Amino acid sequence: MRPTKFCIPFLCFFLLTPILIADSKIPEIPHSEVGFPLPYFSPVSGTFAEIRNHNLHLGSDFKSYGLNGHNILATFDGYVEEISYSKTGYGLSLNLYNPKYKIKSKYAHLHSFGGTLYELELLRRALFLMGDPSGFQLKLPPGMFSTKKGNAIGKTGETGSGPPHLHLEFRSEKGNINPLYFSEIHQKDTTPPTINSMFLEGDDLEKPLLLQAKEIGKGKFELTTEAGEKFSQIQLTGKIRIRLSGYDKIRSRNKNNVYGMDLYVNGKSVFTRNFDFLSYEDKSQKHQFYDINRSSLSPPVYFYHMYDQPKLFREEGYSLDLKQFPKKDKLQIQASLRDATGNISSVTFEIIHDEPKKDQTTKQIAKKTGNKYKSIDGVISIDLTKSETSGEGSLFITEIPEKEIPFKIPKGLPLKGKIYQVETKRMSWRGEGQGEMILGYSPSLKDSLYFYDSSIGKFQGIQPKRKTNGFSFKLTKVGYLMVLSDETPPTVFPMTSIARYIELPEVRNHCMEEKYYGLSDTGSGFKTNVELLLDGQIYPYEYDPDRSAIRVLIPKSLQKERPYLLLEVKASDFAGNSSEPFVDLISTNGWREDLQASCPVME
In this predicted model, what pLDDT tens digit does every residue of 562-580 receive, in sequence order? Predict the structure, then answer.
């Protein structure tokens, strides 16, 4: 790649990404030479290799407690190799490089640079004044901005994406290193991971089993069936696949990714995986580690493959081939999840190697033509022709009576028609399956297609499109489809869960008062454009998708003429329901006049 030259007076830079040459995956830098990236021991709120929409999370997120402007600290001795800015993704970021060990740390979503590198902050401001305001990427001369471990080099922010937090990555020449690999950064917690459930699939099993896990002691879980009975033994033969659903709370109490996992048969390890390193080519290969039709980021639910999954998506791995064992053998199975500190959680059960008992009540539950599937009554159809599928199994579409569904339909959303379960056996798909629901009548504005994600236990949006005789939709997960009628208006509420200010005094705009008002809706979803009045006049605002809220900035200069301001917000949803006006009487008393001398006056 030919570098693009960019110059400002006395300095020239080259817009390119550095190419590094490596001999090992993780550089042998002493743990004592790697420090914490913040001046306080912040909990991790997002961990390494977590599933994301398009690839895997390549670093750790650290809480900044809803506030922008905390110092970020150099994790090791080195120099700033590169700075960049974009309106999405990493936002404002810098790369710190240590040439001795050939390791770099990337800090993202920053508010600004500075600290001991004040000239770097001046350069950032100059680039915004002189260059393209939508973004930049600059490779800096080696050693120009050098620093020592523990020095302040910038401020936390929320640029790019997400509410205030610090995103930190460690990179070698081969790929990304889990920040929790380093002893000064991992969270030293004493709580073992939580196991939610186990998904057991077998070549000769009539239908996959989703077994719930119940904690019976620290790190010890037992499995239960859908009927609530203890599961301790099963009769199987052929190849089986075990997927374990769980998470690790660490210190932040967020549901985070685990650090590693193990599978034992009769006390012997048959599979192990550590999330301590990811090569650059693996970052987009989610299917190697997770069941992508059951895993989710919001809320975080991770279904881990307890086996090596081939990189080629169309191929399918397995945990164990029982035909390698003598008939009637009893195999003791233990599946475990680990955190970075070494805490372990496990489930155990027994497999008897024999033909499984056939379910005589099994009935036909779907029609299949190639990669097109249709419910028996023809109402639901799902086409995976344009999706990439793996495995030799099938997708099932089953009509389920309302009394048998494992969830409650929210109040204010009455059911219209039937409920259908979408499930798979020995197959998965990557991408969006094209679906249709043919109702035989034209749905009303209040009627919409809803999807209940059975893995996360939550209704999720699938962006249905209304047709003259039903709906079309796109599906990436397994779960339940149904039509509900939205009879409930959205709500508006003050954001009391965030700090009064989201910026520390060092970076706060003292000319404006900042207000947040959250939006929520039980049914079809709220519209992001609201009716907002300030003292009876239409007033501007912006929608913050990360907080599901509207952000209102009010000039503090209004304090001189108005002791109170009356703010009114009215929201609507896509079903045509409108909320009652939310009213907030804002007192300007307390807005400090001594900080407003240089602020523009609001006429």
Answer: 899 999 999 999 999 999 9
**Phi/psi of residue 339, each to 5°?**
-105, 180
Q: Provide the terminal-to-terminal Cα distance of the chain, rounded to the nearest Å.
A: 53
pLDDT of residue 362: 47
**How is residue 524 annotated by DSSP?**
S
Q: Are strands 220-224 and 344-353 parallel, antiparallel or unpaired?
A: parallel
What is the tens place of the pLDDT at every residue in 226-245? 888 999 999 999 999 999 99
pLDDT higher than threshold 50 for residue 13: no
Burial class (CB in 10 A: 0-12, 13-18, 19+), 529: exposed
The rounded distance, in Å, linking the Cα atoms of 338 and 189 is: 12
Q: Which of 499, 489, 566 is nearest to 520 (CA)?
A: 489
Say how far apart CA 278 and CA 291 lie, in whole Å: 18
Q: Is 552 left (phi over 0), alpha (psi -120 to 50) or beta?
A: beta
Instruction: Please tell me the predicted confidence (pLDDT) of residue 181.
Output: 96
Beta strands 165-171 and 230-231 are unpaired
Distance (Å, rounded) from C-alpha 332 to C-alpha 80? Answer: 53
Alpha carbon distance 585, 387 (integer Å): 52
- For residues 303-325, one letter each, b for 16 or more C-beta atoms within 10 angstroms of the residue's C-beta and e for the rest, the string is bbbbbebeeebeebbbbbebeeb
Task: For residue 265, count CB atoms less than 10 angstroms from its CB and return exposed for 0-12, middle for 13-18, buried for 19 or more.
Answer: middle
pLDDT at 250 exceeding the cut of 80: yes
pLDDT at 322 over 70: yes
* Residue in 513, 519, 583 with CA at minimum distance from that of residue 552: 513
Instruction: Return d(Cα 352, Cα 211) in angstroms, integer.
Output: 18
Task: Say if CB 359 and CB 206 are below 8 A apart.
Answer: yes
Strand 479-485 to 320-321 pairing: unpaired
Sign of CA pseudo-dihedral 479, 483, 487, 493: positive
Residue 386 burial by Cβ neighbours in a 10 Å radius (0-12, 13-18, 19+): exposed
Contact in structure between 462 and 436 (CB atoms under 8 Å): no
CA nearest to 181, candidates 274, 114, 273: 274
Q: Residues 345-388: pLDDT tens digits?
A: 999 999 999 988 766 444 556 677 888 999 999 999 999 999 99
Provide the pLDDT confidence category of residue 600 given band limits of 50, 70 and 90: low
The pTM of the full predicted model, rounded to 2 decimals, is 0.88
Contact 196, 213 (CB under 8 A): yes
Residues with Cβ within 8 Å of residue 370, at least 6 apart in sequence: 385
- CA angle 440–442–444, rounded 5-degree value: 135
Beta carbons of 504 and 111 less than 8 angstroms apart:
no
- Per the listing, tokens 């590169």 go with 82
Which is more confident, 397 or 205? 397
Dihedral over Cα of 135, 141, 147, 148: its sign: positive
